[in-house]
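Milestone M4 deliverable, item 7.
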Amino acid sequence: MLHPSIDALQEKIESKYTLVSLAAMRAREMQEQNNPQLASYKSHKFVGKALEEVVEGVLTKEAQDESIVYEDEI
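Output delivered:
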C-alpha cells in the first residue's frame, strides 16, 4: 500500500498533473537545500517526503492570478 494514498493527496490537490509538478519541484528543493518541513517522515525518498508534506497541508499550490493572460490562452 502506498503512503500517502492518492485519495488523500487528491483531497488536498485535485489535479494529478499539479500534484506531480509540485512534488517534483519540492523534492528537488529538498535534495539541494536539505530543508525539511516536517519533524519526521515515513518515506526515505524525496518525492515521498514531498507527498507527505502535501497530505499534512504544509505544501500547497499557489493561487493563480486570474488577471494574468498567458500567451497560449489567447
